[in-house]
C-alpha cells in the first residue's frame, strides 16, 4: 500500500470538506474492495475519508412499508434488523450472505452500491426494489444510478447518504456463489407489488453489470409462479464469460435462480 | 499402551503455543540491524532482459542496495539444480536448462526474480522495487504442456530442444502391446490431472544473516528439510561450506511439499546479507506465493487397461506428458517418474505395465511435489480407469476390484515396487460397510424425489511412503540418500531431548515422537523434548515429506533408544548388583524382573553423569545417536467411498458422505492420524471440486493469482468425514508404521469424480468438477 492520509469524518458536511481539501481523495465506507485494491498498489488515493462513523448515515428506519437505510449501515446490521425483516425479509437474507462475518461487520450498503461491483448483491436489490439512492446533493432512482461495470451516476465528491424504498408485497433473492470469491456468479432479485407489477434484477451475470430482465418481468407479471419462467429465453449474448463461467451457463443460472426466487418469495 | 504411550490419542503438546499465538515462525524472527527485502519480478512470462537500471531506486529513501543477477553471477553463486537425474529411454541424460537465482539474461515465467531491493522497511523496499527499470524484450509464450512439445513453439531453454526435458519409460512395452491385442476388453481414457497451488497458510519467508566477524551465515527459512537446504546451498550453490552455514527452520505453517525445495530467495538473501553487511529478511505476500511457490500435478495422460474374458486385468498402458514449468525444481524429475509410474499397479495384480512419460518446459511456475507427489496422479488415473471399466463390463466397482486384488504378500509388481504387506479386501469391506453401500439405491431414490442426482464412487489407493532405501533411490538417480538420523540425549535429571532430522510443520512430531519415548522408558511425555529444525542442534537429517517421519524418522529414534536402553540397563544392573538380562524398564524405573528391587529412571540418569559408580570401563553419560536407512518403501493403502448429490439444474455438487478406511500400519496417536486424514481429504476434495491454476495461454499471466479466483475448499464445502483404519503392521520398520500424511489427498479425488460421473451418467468430466462442467456433462450425458 502506498502512503495515504486517513480522515474520520463525523458529519456529511465535514466529509465533503475533507474531500475538497484532498489532492486525490477517496471515500471509505467499509473498504472491502478499496483496501485490498490499495494493498495491491492498484489504487493510490492521497486521502481516505471514512464515512462509517457519521451518525446521520447510520441506521434503519421503517415507517409502515417505507424503508430508509443509512448508507453507512453494515451488512450485518441489515441482516439482523427485525424491523426490516418484518417488511422485506429478502433484503435481510441477501445481506446475511454477503462475504463472511468479517466483511459483513465492515462493509456497508452505501459502499457496496457506490462501488457497483458487477457481482455485488445489493445493486440487484436496489434495482428490483425500485429504490431511491439519496446523496448529499440529490435523489437518484436506482434505474438511473447503476450505469456500468463499477460505474454509477455519482459525481466527484458526491456521497451516497441513504437508500429509500417501499417494501414490495413479495420479494426474494437467490444467489449462486462463485466457488472462489463467493461473490454472485449470478444473482436474481424478484419483487412483486400489490398491484401485480414485477421487477426482476440480475447481478453477477451481465457483461455491463446489474440489469433488469424485461422478459422475466413480463412473464411473472402475467403469471407469478415458478413455472412462468420456463418459457422465457435468457439471451446469453449480453452476459459475462470469464474464467469461472461461460455466458451460456450464466444464462441457465439466471433462469434457475429466477424460478427459485419466485418459489421462495 | 500407557495413557501417553504408543496408541494413545494424546492432545498435541505444540498446540498450546500455536493456538495462543505463541508460535515462532520465520517472519517472527528479528535480529539487530535487520533490513527488509523485496524482489523485483518479471511481469512477462518470457522475455529477454536488455538492461536493468537501478540508479533511481538506489537513491530512494531507506534503500540500502539493489542487487541483480549479473552481480550474483560475478560473485560465483551457482545455478539452482534438480537433484534427481533421469535418463531418457535413449540413454541420454535429462536436458536441464539453466536456472539463475536472479535471472540475468532471460525471464521464463511471470514472477521470475530479477533483482533484490534491500531497504529499511518493506514499504520502502517495495517503492524502490517499482523504480527499478528493467528493459524487457518480450518473447513468445507457451503454457500448455502438450502444445509446448509441438514443432514451432517458443523455445524456453536452449538445452532442451522442443522443450522436452526427458522421454522416459518404465515396464515392458512389447508385453503390454501383446496383452492389449489379445484382450477381451480394453478400457481407454484420457486423464488430465489439474495443476494446483500449494497454499500453505504461512507464506515462504527467509532471513539471511551474514556474520563478517566469523565469516558465517545463518539462514532462517520456511523449510521442511533444513539440512537438505544446507547441503544443497553448500555443495551446489556455493553460498558457504556447511560448517559456515547454519539453517534454522523454526515453526513452519504448512508445507505440503512446497517447502522442500531451495528457492532463489533463501540464497539470494544470504548473499545479499554479505553484500550489504546487514541481515536481510524477506516474506512472500500471497500474490508471490501464488506466482512462485512450486505448483503440483499438471499431467495429461492417455491410458489403456486390458482385460481377459474373466475380467482380470492383463495389461496397463499409460502415456503421460508432465508439465515441469519454466525451470526444474529440486525434485521435479522424480515426481512424474519414480513416484508415479512405480505406483501404477495400484492394489491390483497386473502382469504387464508400461508407462511412457515426457516432461516439458513451459512458461509457468516450476512444478514439483505436492501432497502425494506422483502417487495421486497414478491413483487418479488408475481408479478412474477401473471404475470406468466396471461400468463398461457391467460389474459393480467393488466386484471388479475384488477380482483383481493382490492377495498374497510380498508381491512384486512389474513396475519396481515390492509390496510387503496389506489387506485390500479388509479396507474395501470396511469402507463399504461404513458407507452403507447396500443402502445407496434407497438414498438415490429419495434424492431423485427431491430432483437431485445422487451418485456413489470409490477408489482403492496404494502409495509408497517411508522414502526411502538410499541405495535403491541412488540407483534410480537420486542425488541424496533418504535415511534419517536421531539422537537421544538423557539429561542428568532423567529428562530427555530427542534431536531428529525430521521436521514438523503441522504434523505434531513434538507429541508423537515424545509418545514413543514415553512408551519405551515409562516417563511422562512432558519430560521429553523434541528438537528439530536447526542444523546446529541436529547433526544431520533429510527432513519431512512423502509421509516419511513416522516410518523413517521415528525408526532412527527407536534405534537410538535401543542403545540408550541397553546402556541404562547395564548401569541399573551394576547399581542393583543384578544380571543385565534380568533388568526391565517399567513405569519410569529399571526393575529386576520378578523381584521388588528397582531404581528410578532419574537415578540411573544421574548415575550416568556423576560417574561415581559405573561398571568398569564404561564411559560417563547417557546419549546415543543412530541413523536409520529403510530396507523398503512402506505401502499405506485403503479405500475411500464418496457419495454426492448433483443439482442437475445448476451442476452444483454436494459431497454428502465421505468414508475413508485406511491401512497405515501401527499408529502412534490416532487423533493426529485422523487429523492428517481430514486435512488430506480436504485437499483432495479441493483438487477434485474446486482448485485449478490457470494461465492465460497467450500472455502467460497467472489468472488465478488470488483467492478471488483460486477456489480453496472451505468448511462448508466438506461433509463430516467418516474415517477408520484397518491396519496391517509394516514388517519393514521397528514400529510397524506405514505413514498417513498424504493418503487423504491421494485416495479422495478419484472417489469423488467417480461419484459425480455415476450421478450424472457421463464419464467425460475433468477436475476441478466445477458446477458449469458438471452441468454441461450432465446434459450431454442424456
Automatic annotation (TrEMBL), chain A:
Domain of life: Bacteria
GO MF term list: FAD binding; oxidoreductase activity
Keywords attached to this entry: FAD, Flavoprotein, Oxidoreductase
A Pfam family matched in the record: FAD_binding_5
PROSITE patterns referenced in this protein's UniProt entry, alphabetically: FAD_PCMH (PS51387)
Domain annotation FAD-binding PCMH-type: ranges: 1-170
Database matches in PANTHER family: XANTHINE DEHYDROGENASE SUBUNIT C-RELATED
Full protein name: Carbon monoxide dehydrogenase
UniProtKB/TrEMBL annotation, chain B:
Keywords: Molybdenum, Oxidoreductase
One Pfam family here: MoCoBD_2
Residue ranges annotated for the Aldehyde oxidase/xanthine dehydrogenase a/b hammerhead domain, each copy included: 20-140
InterPro entries in UniProt: Ald_Oxase/Xan_DH_a/b, Ald_Oxase/Xan_DH_a/b_sf, Ald_Oxase/xanthine_DH-like, AldOxase/xan_DH_MoCoBD1, AldOxase/xan_DH_MoCoBD2, AldOxase/xan_DH_Mopterin-bd_sf
Single GO MF annotation: iron ion binding
Protein name: Carbon monoxide dehydrogenase
Species for this entry: Sinorhizobium saheli
